[in-house]
Amino acid sequence: MALQTSSLAISAFSVHSEGKKSNGFSAIESSFSFLGVPLSDHRIAALKMKKKIAVRAQTTTAVTTPTPSISNSPNEKKTLRKGNVIITGASSGLGLATAKSLAETGKWNVVMACRDFLKAERAAKSVGMSKENYTVMHLDLASLESVRQFIDAFRRSEMPLDSLVCNAAVYYPNAKTPSFTADGFELSVGVNHLGHFYMSRLLLDDMVKSDYPSKRLVIVGSITGNTNTLAGNVPPKANLGDLRGLSGGLSGLGSTAMIDGGEYWGAKAYKDSKVCNMLTMQEFHRRYHEETGITFSSLYPGCIATTGLFREHIPLFRTLFPPFQKYITKGFVSEEEAGRRLAQVVSDRSLTKSGVYWSWNSTSASFQNELSEEASDAEKAKKVWELSDKLVGLA
Ligand code: LMG
Ligand code: NDP
Ligand code: PMR
Predict the structure, then answer these.
(1) Do the record's keywords include tRNA processing (predicted)?
(2) Is the CB of 168 inside a 6 Å radius of any atom of ligand 2?
(3) Residue 371 CB burial class (10 angstroms; 0-12, 13-18, ≥19)
(4) CB 3.0 to 4.6 Å from 274: which of 87, 213, 225, 255, for a disulfide?
(5) Residue 130 lies inside a defined structural domain of this protein
C-alpha cells in the first residue's frame, strides 16, 4: 500500500505532455510515473466515438486558433473587441482572483454570476476592479429556476457570450446529514455539478453564436477528485460507483443523497461532484468541440488553502491547512496565482487545446495532466451526462 500510494503520489506531479518534470517531488518523479498513456491518445480515441449533433450551420467553422481579427476598422486595422466572460462564484476566492486578473487586462468584461449581489459588488471594489470591466448578475446555482432567470437576464443584456467559467462550489466536510437544492438534489452535487451542467448546456447556444475567435468553456476540477494522486487518496475517496444514486435523483427520499448510492458523506459528495465536473468537460469536448470550435477545459489550479471553500471546516483545520500545504505538501498557491492560472485557461493563446485537464508545476508552467481512471472514463461521462440531462429536465 505504501509503495502503491507513493507511486500514485508521484504520478500526480509527474505526467507532463512535453515530458518535463513538474512539481514538488520532481527529483524522483519521472522514473516512478506509471500512467503511461498520454491524454492526447484518449482524446483521439474519444473523438472517433463522437456523436453527431445538430448545430446551426453558420456556427460550424472550427476556430481553435485565436487569430485576433474580429472587426475591420475603416483604416483596415484589425481590432479585437472586448470579450465577455461569465464567471460563477466570482465573489470570493479563485473566482474573484480570476475576475480581477482578466479585468485588469482591459480586454474583458467579466460577468460576475453570484448568489450575493452586494457581496460581489463589494468584492470587485475591494480588489480594485474598475466599473467598465465587470458586470454583476444574480445567480443561485442551488436553484434551476435561478439559472433560467440568470440566462434570461444575460440574454436581455445583448452581450455576446465568449467564454464561460464554472467555478462556484460548496464543500460540507463535517455535515452529518445532507442539505438539498430548491429542486431537491443533494447540495454539493446540486450546486457544483448539476447547476453548472444545466447552465452550460443552455449557454452553449449563446457561445456558438458569438463571433469571438477563441471561445472557451472552463469547468474547475480538482486533484482531490483524482485517485491517481496522493491527495485523491485521503479518505473519503471520490467514487461514483454505478451511479445508482444519481439515477435516483439524489433526493434522499426513497433513494440516497450520494451518487454511488452510499451513506451521506459531505467530503465525498464534494469530491464526487469534482469528478462529475471533469467528466462533463470531456463529454462536452466529445460532443461539441469539432462542430463548434469551442475549447472545453478543466484544471486543478493548485491548493488555494486560504479560500472560503473551507468555511464549514473546524477552526483547527482552517489554521493548520495553509501551513500544511505550504511547507509539507508544497501544493499551496495564493489566490492571486491561482487566479492568474485560471485566467490563462480562459485567455492564453497557448492553452487553446480542447479536452485538457490543466495543471501547473512548481515553476508555474502549465502542463496537460492525467486524470484518474474514473475521471477519464468515457462510458461513465456519457452516463453522467444522460442522467444529469434527465434530472435537470433537458431529456
Ligand atoms: C476526513 O478525514 C474525514 O474523514 C471526512 O469526514 C472529512 O471531514 C474530511 O476534512 C475533510 O476529512 C481526513 C483525515 C483522515 O485527515 C486528516 O486531516 C487527519 C490528520 C492526520 C494527521 C497527519 C499528520 C499530517 C501533518 C500535520 C498537518 C495537519 C494539517 C491537516 C489538518 C488536520 C485537522 C484536524 O486522513 C487520514 O486518514 C490520514 C491518512 C491519509 C491517507 C493518505 C493516503 C496514504 C498516505 C500515505 C502516506 C504518505 C506520506 C506522505 C507525506 C505527507 C505528509 C503528511
Ligand atoms: P470559495 O468558497 O472562495 O468560492 C466559491 C464561490 O462559489 C463563492 O463565491 C460562493 O459564493 C460561490 N457559490 C457557492 N454556492 C453558490 C451558489 N449556490 N450559487 C452561486 N454561487 C455560489 O472557494 P474557492 O475559490 O476555493 O473555490 C472555487 C473553485 O475552485 C471551486 O470549484 C473549487 O472546487 C475549486 N478548487 C478549489 C481549491 C482550493 O484549494 N481552494 C482546489 C481545487 C479546486 P459566496 O461568495 O456568496 O459564498
Ligand atoms: Mg489534502 C500531497 C499533496 C496534497 C495536495 C496537493 C493536497 C491538496 N492534499 C495533499 C495531501 C494531503 N491532504 C495529506 C497527506 C493529507 C492527510 C494529512 C491531506 C488532508 C486533507 C484534508 C483533511 N487534504 C484536504 C483536506 C480537506 O478537507 C480538503 C478537501 O479534501 O476538500 C475536498 C483537502 C485538500 N487537499 C488538497 C486540496 C486542493 C484540498 C482542497 C479541496 C479541493 O478543492 O480539492
Answers:
(1) no
(2) yes
(3) buried
(4) 225
(5) yes
Ligand 2 atom closest to 146 (CA): 19
CA–CA dist 152, 146 (Å, integer): 10
Q: pTM of the full predicted structure?
A: 0.84
Cα 233 to averaged position of ligand 1 atoms, centre (Å): 10
- Strands 295-299 and 356-360, how do they pair? parallel
**pLDDT tens digits, residue range 157-202?**
999 999 999 999 999 999 999 999 999 999 999 999 999 999 999 9
**Ligand 3 atom 17: the closest Cα is on which residue?**
234
Reported as type and span, the H/E element at residue 392 is: none
Q: What is the pLDDT of residues 63-81, one digit of tens each?
A: 333 333 344 444 444 678 9
CA-CA distances (angstroms) from residue 173 to 47, 265, 361?
Answer: 37, 8, 28
Query: 224: CA distance to ligand 3 center in Å?
Result: 7
Please state, in angstroms and rounded to a whole number, the distance separating the CA atoms of residues 359 and 388. 27
Does ligand 1 have an atom closer than 6 angstroms to the CB of 57?
no
Strands (E) in the chain, as ranges, are 71-72, 78-79, 83-88, 108-114, 134-138, 163-166, 216-220, 295-299, 356-360, 366-368
Contact yes or no for 213/81 (Cβ under 8 A): no
Residue ranges making up the domain that contains 136: 83-392
| Of 273, 262, 370, nearest in space to 7 by CA | 370
State the closest ligand 2 atom to the C-alpha of 168, by its place in the atom list counted from 1.
7
In a domain, 280, yes or no: yes
d(CA 330, ligand 2 centre) in Å: 22
Q: Is any ligand 2 atom within 6 A of the Cβ of residue 116?
A: yes
Interface pTM, i.e. ipTM: 0.89
Distance from the alpha carbon of residue 91 to the mean position of ligand 2, in angstroms: 9
CATH number, domain of 262, equals: 3.40.50.720
Question: Is residue 56 one of the residues assigned to a domain?
Answer: no
How many domains, in total, are found in the chain? Answer: 1
Q: Is the CB of 234 under 6 A from ligand 1?
A: yes
